[in-house]
Amino acid sequence: MRLNEVRALVTGGARGMGRCFVEQVRDAGGVVAFCDVDANAVAEASVALGVPGFACNVADEASVQRCYDDVVASIGVPNVLVNNAGITRDGLFLKANPETGEPVMMDLSRWQQVLDVNLTGPFLCTRAFVAGAFRAKAAESVVVNISSISRAGNAGQLNYSAAKAGLVADTVVWAKELARYNVRVGAVAPGFIRTPMTEGMKPEALAKVAAGIPLKRLGEPTEIWQAVRFIVECGYFTGRVVEVDGGLVI
Ligand SMILES: NC(=O)c1ccc[n+]([C@@H]2O[C@H](COP(=O)([O-])OP(=O)(O)OC[C@H]3O[C@@H](n4cnc5c(N)ncnc54)[C@H](O)[C@@H]3O)[C@@H](O)[C@H]2O)c1
Which of 46, 58, 84, 117 to mutate for ligand 1's pocket (most ligand atoms within 8 Å of CB)? Predict the structure, then answer.
């Protein structure tokens, strides 16, 4: 698909990588809308980018359907979906309480929130998107899932690793099941990228991370866009993951 034929919906598009993808599609002559759970950030980004934005929680079924309908009313039936919205709630599965020696386990809410947003979110958004494309008899549709190199299993990220690995498994299943309906599905697994998500980390922790990356720096959102763009443009790409991580292996 050529970029000027793209009609994209980007989730989590008010900040970070999602915002970068929105800008890039717009600047390449495509049509784009975005959604984000933060209504204030949606309002700001929508004005700043000159692109329609909608408040939506990707983990909520009704919210996703409402958002999809609003997007269709605004830009028409989208032919590209970027499942980008994601959160982290990092923590060890088990920590010993230093005073009592008792085990302190990851609580269910920390597990559930990350699974809800990072795995159920793409399920709900892809469901609405594919049903819409099917009804519209779209000639070609593309789903890009933003996974992570943490899918390999990163200590301190049990919840996040599970969700991002699940998203890659779903990428393969969707690619196999939906090819007959002219839907391609690919994933990008970024390493550490400079966005509000990583800017929230302690500077010492970030410096340590950067030192362990063969390219010795964090990636830029535009470098992840290059992989998203490849998946959109390459008509023979489906069911695979592009890793963009500066050579870092988890
Ligand atoms: N930054 C990194 O180093 C990195 C590395 C690998 C993968 N990723 C993944 O890339 C994606 C984008 O990350 P980022 O660094 O730009 O994050 P970010 O926190 O900077 O931006 C994420 C955006 O998603 C929105 N969002 C969160 N929960 C949502 C929900 N329930 N519904 C709708 N929107 C929601 C947030 O409001 C925010 O605007 C995420 O899926 C993340 O897991 C990031």
Answer: 84
Q: Mind listing the domains of the chain with CATH numbers?
A: 3-244 (3.40.50.720)
Residues facing residue 55 across a β-bridge: 36
**In this structure, what token pair is assigned to residue 206?**
């970030």
Q: DSSP characters for 106-139? A: PPHHHHHHHHIIIIIHHHHHHHHHHHHHHHTT-S
What pLDDT band is residue 80 in, cutting at 50, 70 and 90? very high
Tokens linked to 28: 């390449």
Separation CA 224–CA 65 (nearest Å): 27
- Annotation says 68 is catalytic: no
For residue 7, what are the β-bridge partners? Answer: 31
pTM for this model (two decimals): 0.98
Counted residue by residue, the chain has a size of: 250
Q: What is the pLDDT of residues 131-140, one digit of tens each?
A: 999 999 999 9
The SS3 call for residue 101 is: coil
Per DSSP, the residues of 196-216 read HHHHTS-HHHHHHHHHTSTTS
Q: Which residues have C-beta atoms less than 6 Å from ligand 1?
A: 11-12, 14-18, 36-38, 41, 56-59, 84-87, 117, 121, 146, 148, 190, 192-193, 195-198
Q: What's the confidence (pLDDT) of residue 201?
A: 86
Residue 218 structure tokens: 């964090």
3-state class (DSSP) for residue 105: strand
Report the pLDDT value the prediction gives residue 250, as an integer from 0 to 100.
Answer: 86
Instruction: Grade residue 209 by pLDDT with cuts at 50, 70 and 90.
Output: very high
